[in-house]
Fold this sequence. Notes:
67% of the residues lie in helices and 2% in strands. Strands 1-2 form a two-stranded antiparallel ribbon. It is built from 14 helices and 2 strands; from the N terminus they run αααααααααααββααα. The N terminus is likely disordered. The radius of gyration is 22 Å and the shape is globular. It is mainly alpha-helical. The chain binds fe (ii) ion (2 copies). The site of one fe (ii) ion has 5 residues, from helix 7 and helix 8.
Amino acid sequence: MYAQMVKSEATNDDPELLAAFQARIDAGEKIEPKDWMPEGYRKTLIRQIGQHAHSEVVGQLPEGNWITRAPTLERKAILLAKVQDEAGHGLYLYCAAETLGVSRDDLTEQLLSGRMKYSSIFNYPTLNWADIGAVGWLVDGAAIMNQVPLQRTSFGPYSRAMIRICKEESFHQRQGYDLIRVMAQGTAEQKAMAQDALNRFWYPSLMMFGPSDKDSVHSAQSMAWKIKINTNDELRQKFVDQTVPQAHYLGLTIPDEALAWNEDKGGWDFSEPDWSEFYEVLKGNGPCNTDRMEARQKAWNDGAWFRDGLMAHARKSAARRVAAE
Ligand SMILES: [Fe+2]
Ligand SMILES: [Fe+2]
């Protein structure tokens, strides 16, 4: 079945070229934008990097919402820096996608028309200040689990973008954990807010790794191409094993009655998220899908005059250069 998938997605490509391409990947070489690549590889990467870029940008919305309400100057400065980092991550990733022959405008139009997605986690609201801690601790924590292996991904520009992004993500995770620690060790009311945030973000964070391996459509080919390095279930397990002791240290309870240490596997047994909820949010029926898309649409429309101005300036400069020659 594995070989079959590889074949069916690459039917238009010359078998010799394909074999040479796979050999480069197997040898750990990076594929660069001007190198030959199968159309399926290019398309899969455009989808993956594009969705990743959109997630970074849309991911600013639930947190940006709290910048003016941060309780102290220090927390405000930290949150501002984090949200700005996410904008930067979006930019590196749009640039990496552009090296594959798609424009940033195209990617944005695909997002706004609903043909491209962003991570469903950002369709959940941030209702209280402890949620900002939970987002950093759990959402950025899950993102790091996904992204650290991608530093070794086969496509050069993506891999290099991920190296820089991961450095910043680890700051995001730590500031979130620090925030929730302060809340968990605060007054009874603050601790209750921290617990409430964990209750609401736990399962959506587990969903960030995508459906179970047996239901994941793109896994086998993406792994052969080293676009994906670990399976969804492997990464989810790793995340749970890392996070449970952190929650216990804080005196917080993971909202899963089935959670139990499994000596044989050396990891925690846990309940699967409700996948029907995942698919509903993916279809656009999550709590904030409409708000997020409206915010992106508004930003795109509000920025039209600026893009037009830049283009007009570029055209004038080009015309002046031609006239001067
Ligand atoms: Fe990020
Ligand atoms: Fe982040």
